[in-house]
Design goal:
Blueprint (H helix, E strand, L loop, with lengths): L17 E2 L2 E2 L5 H7 E5 L7 E2 H5 L8 H10 L3 H5 L8 E2 L8 H14 L4 E5 L7 H14 L4 E5 L12 E5 L2 E6 L1 H7 L1 H10 L1
Parallel strand pairs: 3-6, 6-7
Antiparallel strand pairs: 1-2, 4-5, 8-9
């Protein structure tokens, strides 16, 4: 997928991917991993406890940063409601949590590392619209200046974003705000009518 070019899971074969004008191929991998945070639709958690999972990849951060990330991901409430809270056990792949809880923990883990570029690859698909909206509103409040890239199937996930890019069969077919796309793109209007 196109999003895999940013953290260099694949390299671009034509053109280039840049962050603040710097080609990602010129940024050392370890530094790129600090800059770019990725939360996927299939939220993968590790056997251990909640704290271990949220600090994975950001072991040195203070608990306060982890708590703030969990609040932004709308995970703080259900974690603090667990008997062991942050020490609560996480089963292999996180199967002792619901799909929505796994996604919120995965987003919280990504936010705990405080990336400069956040990629949410359909990572809110298991959340209801109200929870998804809370998460989307909390991220820019907590992480001022963060660039967030949402990949989503539901228009509700992107309707309030600064720029929406509509892709069909790997090609960009339209770019704009929701209002601009509703006016200019028949494909976007059809998607909106179908899913909303």
């Amino acid at each position: 997928a196109l999003v895999n070019l940013v953290p260099r899971f694949y390299d671009a074969t034509d053109g280039r991917i840049t962050i603040d004008g710097h080609d990602v191929r010129d940024i050392p991998q370890d530094q790129l991993r600090e800059i770019v945070g990725l939360a996927l639709q299939e939220a993968l958690l590790f056997q251990g406890d909640v704290r271990f999972n949220l600090k994975f990849g950001a072991e040195g951060v203070e608990d306060k940063q982890m708590f703030e990330a969990a609040k932004a991901a709308d995970a703080h409430g259900f974690v603090t409601g667990l008997p062991e809270t942050w020490g609560a056990p996480v089963a292999r792949r996180g199967y002792n949590f619901s799909g929505g809880q796994r996604q919120r923990l995965s987003i919280a883990r990504t936010l705990t590392a405080a990336p400069k570029v956040l990629i949410l690859d359909d990572s809110t698909s298991a959340l209801d619209v109200a929870t998804e909206s809370r998460v989307q509103a909390a991220i820019p409040e907590l992480y001022e200046g963060i660039t967030t890239i949402y990949i989503a199937q539901r228009i509700s996930a992107v309707i309030d974003l600064d720029r929406i890019v509509l892709m069909e069969n790997g090609e960009i077919t339209a770019i704009g705000t929701h209002e601009e796309l509703m006016e200019a793109s028949e494909a976007y209007r059809n998607i909106f009518a179908r899913y909303e």
